[in-house]
Amino acid sequence: MPTVWVLYRQRLRRDRWQLLSWVLSIGVLAWFAVEAITKTFGDEASRAQVLKLATATPAILVLRGLARGPGLDSFTFFEIFTFLALLAGFMNTFMAVRHTRAEEESGRAELVSATAAGRWAPFAATVLHGIVANLVLAAAVALGFMGGGLAPAGSVVAGLATGAVGLAFLGVGLLAAEFFSTSRAANGISATLVMVAYLLRGFGDATGSVSPDGMTVTAAWPSWISPIGWGQQTFAYTGNQLWPLLLPVGLATVCGAVVVLIMSRRDVGASILVGRRGRWEARPWLRGPFALAWRLQQGSIIGWCAGGFATGLITGSLGSAIQSTLNSNASITAALREMIQAQGTSMTQLLVAALFEIAGVLAAACGVQAILRMRQEEAAGTAEFVLSEPVGRVRWLGSFMGLGAISVVLVMAFTALGAWLSLVASGDTSTAVGDVWATGVAQLPAALIYLAVPAVVFVVWPRATIPAGWALLGIGVVLGVYGGMVGLDQKIVDLSPFTHTPVVTDTGTDWSGGFWMLGIAAVIAVIALVTVPRREVGTA
Amino acid sequence: MDTVIQTTDLHKSFGPVKALDGLDLEVHAGEIHGFLGPNGAGKSTTLRILLGLARASSGSASVLGKDPWGDAVELHRRVASVPGDVSIWPNLSGGEAIDLISRLRGGVDDAAYRERKQQLCELFDFDPSKKGRAYSKGNRQKVALIAALVTPAEVYLLDEPTSGLDPLMEAVFTREVRRLSRENGASVLLSSHILSEVEQLADRVSIIRSGRIVDGGTLDSLRHLTRTEISFAQDSVDTTALAALSQIHDLAVAEGRIKFGVDSDRVHEVLPLLGSLGVKGLLVAPPSLEELFLRHYGDQVAPAAPEPTHDGAPHRRRHRTVAKTGA
Ligand SMILES: Nc1ncnc2c1ncn2[C@@H]1O[C@H](COP(=O)(O)OP(=O)(O)O)[C@@H](O)[C@H]1O
Ligand SMILES: [Mg+2]
Hints:
Strand order of the largest sheet of chain A: 1-2
Radius of gyration of chain B: 23 Å
CATH topology of the largest domain in chain B: Rossmann fold
Order of helices and strands of chain A: HHHHHHHHHEEHHHHHHHHHHH
Number of strands of chain B: 13
Shape of chain A: globular
Organism (chain A): Sinomonas humi
Largest sheet of chain A: 2 strands, antiparallel
Number of strands of chain A: 2
Distance between the termini of chain A: 39 Å
Distance between the termini of chain B: 40 Å
Transmembrane segments (chain A): 20-38, 75-97, 118-145, 157-177, 184-203, 242-263, 301-322, 350-372, 400-421, 441-461, 468-488, 514-532
Bound molecules: adenosine-5'-diphosphate, magnesium ion
Structural class of chain A: mainly alpha
Number of helices of chain A: 20
CATH superfamily of the largest domain in chain B: P-loop containing nucleotide triphosphate hydrolases
Oligomer: heterodimer
GO cellular component, one term (chain B): plasma membrane
Order of helices and strands of chain B: EEEHEHEHHHEHEHEEHEHEEHEHH
Keywords (chain A): Membrane, Transmembrane, Transmembrane helix
Protein name (chain A): Polyketide antibiotic transporter
């Protein structure tokens, strides 16, 4: 037992900041949701109106949940629970893989297994660590809802539901770690399963049966094969049922048992699925730093583009669904405008603006990642191979930045394509359909700033590249996308590039913010390219 | 003789750490030059400066008459290298990595290249079809070695190239480098912290310690600087005559034997006296480079200290240095 305790303490220590930020963010998000809903839809009548709109629009249900009447507490649960559960899922799969497959891959697990700890103590410590983390998460969510003023009993049920879903995905993550030989693959597959669980219940909720008054929805069967769907079945505040949580806890137990079975039969470091073999020779196009940059990032660029395309598709289907059911009832448009915090005159424009803002953040993240990838190359030591050959530093940096710019454009192009396709398919003929291309272009300048600024950081302060890249993006999103909503001072909101993204409307679009940002991005990019020859190459 | 690599009063600091402290290194055209020194002595730093990856704090360096920092791209067409700490792309196969590196150098993908690559893979018993993350340390090292050897270059900068290789593979490496030097007239700078590795290959060596060259020359000339150890049975030999000789150092009596060291180039001057003393059980131990080397590594290894301490103390000292620079 003491060994497990020592290993548990080590996990806690290693994860303290990371886990704390996950748990706090999820808890604060719960609290924030209550606050925002109280502020925007203060009275029951407006909530009932929005609920009616939502239950009539299957696409909205995908992103929300199962409706249970217009009460503030049940409405909040409807609005935010599935998203909290989604985050809990990611938190747990990453945590599970971090302490199992990643450790084995790095060889550290072998060191530990060679000691008195054996192979079971580290696993037990990871499970303990996961259970405690999910209990803390449950408490944080419960406190978040209570802090917002919701009923304690229901808040505890909502918290437990979040924790139980988290526990289920802890099991999924641990199991995935047994199957794949790399933490990258294990993380990828288990995060995908979290997404699938979210979408499954989204599909089940959207195709569920709506009560005649439009106030409640009963899920269809797909929701019942998703851990997030199980969590929803607690119907916190209105139902307060705990028995559905036996399902996620049971899934976690089954996963754990299978893991034990596999672990008792395999070597440390081995996996059920063996990694694919590679090529004997490089493909003919793999020559030069640009080709290398593509070879290293092709998977993630395709992923970003798929994300953009999916966002685009949602835009179109949401827009058309709302149009057809309500024919743009003015008061509902206003309500929805509040709900998604966007500008625009027609309903379609409103949705395009709101969802393309998300796609714009996606594109910016893609830009940031292009530069972070280069820093990872340097930190790992593989950059040294390239720069010991006749490849100048400007060409090296230029290749990664160039590919970054291309992928940013691709992400927006796929978003616009997705939106255009789904709008055309829905039979929408308004001018907003053509506007999707312009709206896509409008997101590019801000995203390109997020390519240029990390590039400069990479040149002048290499070690700060990765934290600075994500921090700048996070601050930009919080200030630019949510800043106005929580009533921050305009001067502070103006600091974010996203604030200056041109808004495409049929009353005339002001493109000046975009041109300014494009100019700034270009100047910063040139500074990075001019200064990089003076920089040493190192892992530190 | 032409000089291909020259550094003069080279300094490099990392904050308070002086990695190089006035390094003067010279490598002649066509030679294999051993660059020997303990861990943390500054070998990798020197090679990184010669590759233009790091910039000297002061002093000058030239490779093939050019400035490694300013003319890096041009130089890299003529220089091949193996980095000190090899890591390869986890999602590229070994074969892909080798092809990529040689294409970056401007090598052409012709049949001759493929044949040479195939030949090296067989010689090093290397499977190029595994993904980078699946290779062991030794196999990662082979990727770097094959990539460096597969296309011809004028100068090779090899930083501890055999680390992680088994003795059989080390022998393959030694043979390949010797061939490069003989057949192509290439110049090689070979860094190592193990003498025996360099001893087989190098025409000349430079010994680096704390960022400075402390000794150098051909292996034979280095041997001349060492002392030959002589010992014989004590019996009842009168050693006063011996002690008076200036060629003799550290005369001592231990375990019934008389021991002393003689400057290696003056051994013949001592022998007549030993003959006239009629000594029994005479042992003449040839100079060991290892000893010279350890003297430069350690703080104060006495040349005539008894055998066991030779093997014990300096090794421990070496391990301590490893631990210090391990991070
Ligand atoms: N990037 C760096 N930052 C700080 N110190 C360094 C860095 N690179 C090398 N050093 C220090 O410089 C000294 C020489 O290191 P190195 O050239 O790697 O030695 P060697 O290759 O001979 O083992 C060591 O003390 C090492 O700690
Ligand atoms: Mg080194």
